Amino acid sequence: MTAKSIIAIGFSMLGLTAQAQSLNTYGNTGLIDMPTAHGMPDGHVAFTYGTVGNAGRATVNFQISPRVEGSLRYSTIDGFGAGNTDRSDQQFDLKINLLDETTAPFALSLGFRDFLGSAVYSSEYLVATKEISPGLRITGGLGWGRLAGERAFGNPFGGTRSNPAGGAQQVNSANFFQGPDTGFFGGVEWQPQGSDWRLKAEYSPDTYMDEVASGQFNRSNGWNFGIERRLGHGLDGGIYWMGGQEVGFRLSFSADPRTPRVPPDLINGPPPFTARPATAKGGTNWVSNQALQDQLMTALAPAFEAEGLSLRAAKLEATSVEFHLANLHHDRAPKAVGRAARLLTTGMPPSVETFHITLIENELPTATVTVNRSDMERLVDTHEAVPESWQRFAIANAVPLEAPTWQAPGAGLSYTIGPKVPFSLFGGTFDFDVVLDAEATYRVSPEFSFHAEASQSLLGRLQDVTPATGPLPRVRSSFAAFQSDTPVLDRLTADYVSKLGENLYGRASVGYLERMFGGISGELLWKDVNAPLAYGLEINYAHQRDPGSLLGFNGYDTVTGHGSIYWDTGWNGIYAQLDAGRYLAGDWGATVTVSRRFENGWEVAGYVTDTNADTSASTSGSFDKGVRLTIPLGWTVPFPTRRKLTVPFSDLARDDGARLDVSNRLYPLVRDVDRNRLGDNWASFWQ
Predict the structure, then answer these.
(1) Which of 466, 461, 491 is nearest to 476 (CA)?
(2) Within 13 A of 675's CA, how many CA atoms are on the CB side?
(3) Structure confidence by residue, pLDDT tens digits, 225-247
(4) Does domain 412-676 have CATH number 2.40.50?
């Protein structure tokens, strides 16, 4: 089997698909170096590595919304400026579509390249693209900053770019559309219909001034030419002739989070629905017959288990029942509720008219969906089933079940084994590892449990992560010391979680909280299932572990904690989170996280952290930033599962803005079972 075949099979398993628009060497939708006005289809994610002469660029690109494209890039330049110094840099890009070609004569976009970074690639542009015949597109635009290097005209906005290339990491808003000149760029792209090949040509006003000054980059004109090919399985690449003297390459992978690799419910369809006969008697004598109740529960518990649900407790009354269930496999909570309701139509006596179905997450009752049995019998298999059931079935905050008729044993052991893929995108390196992770939980009672986690590095590629510099305590820059070729104990904790009130959750953890720190962690969360906002408070005492011993500690300890606001915007799956407080190194500040979550569990999240730490000696800038991808495994396998693969792109060795990596924070446990999230996925109730 060839290397290309192995790569293709691997990315096929991840569900990567070919992008509708091509990408450039910066990892944005574009020509070769220049942007175009088009974007990727809404929600698409792309990974690109591009090289131009002495520069390498690794980019994560995400179509945040139909009109907004964002990119996070890590760049290395071997020789920069007259000092001929090697640079490692990170940038954020943003492109906003102003006009769409489907509703306007041409597409028009406004873009900001390296607007959050050290201004190495700082530029702004206004670009238009027109498809003049199938597969043939032309692009023209105006550029500022690096896109105004030659054949430019006087900038009508004037001004001076205040953050020079290679300056401090900052928001470069003072540079926007500033500088003495405005440049012109343009190009053409042709992909014959039905062909996997693509030809590109462009004129670029970027003179690569600082790269040329180092003597390691050559450029004689502004013309770039390229040939690209779509290789299948989401793989797309190109080779380019740049500036008349340099060669460039690009390799990209893309994925559509909303398109699974296998049909949903390939194996397990819903259980049969059983309507009550019109002649059914509604007698209630069964309520006082304990033997009959025991018989019902003995039959229902394994039936729930077969549907991916674990029965925790039940309360049976003459006309209503309440069941507390843990969703083991279904990626959409309404599907779990619907499967439970179907089983209850078969298992409950005719007198029972109301089903109260409560979903449990980590033994926390989260939301209760009340299903009217008569409504369900009337709506099943009708066209109006989805909208009308959503209007008629009530959703409320769940509370612990008092005086249950039946309750599962509290104690039990559970475990999981699966992969993790940590990336070091910043901190002077771009590398990754593949880790085999094993977790086990022994539950003493619904509220109290012991948790252990160990991992084994399979590649060992992150042991040489370059540490950060500066006066802060080495809370993360000692990262390499905690890496090992042998199994590592990541966590060993005793945990208490409880529903303290109708909207209030609590957690307490003690032990080895993560690979680098042990201590005590406490958290409170206020979350109403019918409200878009949630509020949290976390306080921790953390003591740094000794990397040279399995269970020992070193001399550094601290108190850290944050207040948090969580907001489900209700628009396009966008969530926002603000955490403000004291970090592990004693610095004070805040982290803003914005994520987009898809119905099937895919999530793309980006964050920025700024603190009062002195980072003047740091090469990574004054703020931390990163991206996190969460990919549900049920997206790629033909059976239901809630397992997910989380891929973080972050600086693993940065001391400022560092938080404890606590495994069971409360908001991620309960956020999937509120009104907005249930409404987004309600059609799955009937699946």
Answers:
(1) 466
(2) 18
(3) 999 999 887 899 999 999 999 99
(4) no
pLDDT in tens, 443-474: 998 899 999 999 998 877 665 555 556 788 99
Cα dist from 525 to 208, 423, 589, whole Å: 51, 30, 21
pLDDT band at 640 (very low <50, low <70, confident <90, very high): confident
Choose among 19, 47, 39, 32: nearest CA to 189.
Answer: 32
* pLDDT over threshold 70, residue 6: no
Interatomic CA distance for residues 84 and 77, integer angstroms: 10
Hey, is 401 helix, strand or coil?
coil
pTM of the model: 0.84
**Main-chain phi, psi angles of 68, to 5 degrees:** -130, 125
* Euclidean distance between CA atoms 669 and 663, whole angstroms: 11
Report residue 41 as tokens.
Answer: 């289809």
Q: What is the per-residue burial (b if ≥16 Cβ within 10 Å, else e) of 557-575?
A: ebebbbebebebeeeebeb
Q: Quick one: tokens of 108? A: 């028009």
3-state secondary structure of 335: helix
Fold classification of 3-255 is Porin (2.40.160)
Residue the block writes with tokens 């989070």: 257
**How much is the CA Rg of the chain, to the nearest whole Å?**
28
pLDDT > 80? residue 267: no
What residue spans define the domains of the chain?
Answer: 3-255, 285-408, 412-676
Instruction: Calculate the alpha carbon distances from 134 to 108, 130, 230, 402 in Å.
Output: 19, 11, 17, 66
Residue 118 is classified by DSSP as S
pLDDT score recorded for residue 466: 57
- Cβ proximity of 513 and 521 under 8 Å: yes
- DSSP helix, strand, coil percent of the chain (3-state; round to 5): 15, 45, 40
CATH 1.10.10 for domain 285-408: no
Contacts of 384 (CB under 8 A, 6+ apart): none
CA distance 215 to 84: 8
CB 459 within 8 A of CB 434: yes
Positive or negative CA dihedral for 171, 175, 177, 183? negative
**How many other CB atoms are found less than 10 A from the CB of residue 263?**
8
DSSP label of 685: G
Contact status, residue 535 vs residue 566, Cβ threshold 8 Å: yes
Q: Which two tokens stand for residue 605?
A: 């999240």
Q: Which two tokens stand for residue 554?
A: 């070193």
Residue 628 DSSP one-character state: E
Residue 247, Cβ neighbours under 10 Å: how many? 11
Whether 174 contacts 163, CB under 8 Å: yes
pLDDT-derived band at 8 (thresholds 50, 70, 90) equals very low
Same fold, 3-255 and 412-676: yes
The pairing of beta strand 68-80 with beta strand 85-99: antiparallel
- Of the pLDDT bands very low, low, confident and very high (cuts 50, 70, 90), residue 384 is very high
d(CA 330, CA 164): 52
Q: How far apart are CA 530 and CA 552, in angstroms?
A: 45
Contact 113, 91 (CB under 8 A): yes
- Residue corresponding to tokens 């906005």: 157
